Amino acid sequence: MATTAKPARKPNAAFMKPLTPSPTLAAVIGSSPLPRTEVTKKIWEYIKKHDLQDPANRRNINADDKLRPLFGKEQVSMFELTKLVSGHLK
Fold it and tell me: Start and end of every DM2 domain (predicted)?
């Protein structure tokens, strides 16, 4: 009984398509078009670099001056993050 290797999984083209960030989002990640995956990665780099995770509940992100216009409030959960960011991509 021979086992057959699974073919390598192809990345979803929708995730790999470069999208242009809005001026609000560009203030955080830069203005060059990026795939959704890279946008999320860059936002998390920014959050960690500026220590914006809530110390009491690490799932929450505290907004600083650059993130406040993006979030529209003082604090968001990491689960809200992708929904909020997708509204700033074209």
Answer: 14-90
